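Cast an eye over my tokenised protein here and flag anything odd:

===
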Amino acid sequence: MNNTFKQISDTIKKAKNIAIFTHINPDFDAFGSALALYFACKKMNKSVSFFSKANLTEKQEVFIDKSWINEICNESDFDLFISTDTPSKNRLGDYGYLFKNNNETIVIDHHQNVDLVGKYNFINTSFSSCSEIVFKIIKALKINIDQQIASLLYLGLSADTGSFMNTNTNSCSFKTAYELSKLGADLAFINQNQYRSFSIKEIEIRKYLYENYKILGECAYILVDLAALKKMACSKADCDFYSSELISIKEAKYSFSIIESNKNFYEISMRAKSGYSVRDIANELGGGGHIGAAGAKVEAESIEAVKDKILQLINKR
């Protein structure tokens, strides 16, 4: 059961020492929602820390300062724990244990919840991004939303809607974008660096996609093993956009990428065009997400075995 924005904002106001978390391998909505809330709490003169063990991608480093991020969280130092954009304890990685009954916890998310439940919650899948929800919470806190906070929220909103082209985009998305632009979000800087600026390394990563993707029926996919990551001198996070790029192929109704993050551990990202769904497929693989965008992490003997399983699930639909 959801709490109201006022109940959540009142809980934040009462806290003195706040710890904020988001999911492993954070995307821009994860960072945007968590860091916007982090800076909002700082404006309230709270003692607040944001925790993540993520390695920033080259593109993320343009927007996010490493000094904003901590890795080691001492549970006894905080009286409130907040999670954004995360549907399960497993997706919180090493910080999942903090969300237990005896802690004051808030869970803020727009994904279908798996098992991450706080003492206070706002979980609503009708929102296209977690940043939109955090925006409403910050407004309920009645603090001044400056350019930095507005830009972080717009960054998350823009990313999760695919620059307002994904199937999860709705009227609320555009209304939020309008409000954030009025509040000073740096749209020109975000759009230029998020969508129109690529380093030579990023071009090489895109080259791998275009040279190695496959199409089978109405499904486009790409497989990336550890050897490929090493050859490109990149991480799994650098290739996270692959499935989103592949769904733009006219003939594809579904797309997915399988990336070997560790030996025999594979991270799956899936996309579907309007009228199709990948959420149930992700659920069967132990993951989750939205109708048009979902993912999972699995252990298997080979990347080919994972590919065959996904194709089998798609073909059943």
About this structure: The longest strand covers residues 254-262. The radius of gyration is 19 Å. The chain has a mean pLDDT of 94. Residues 3 and 121 are 6 Å apart (CA to CA).
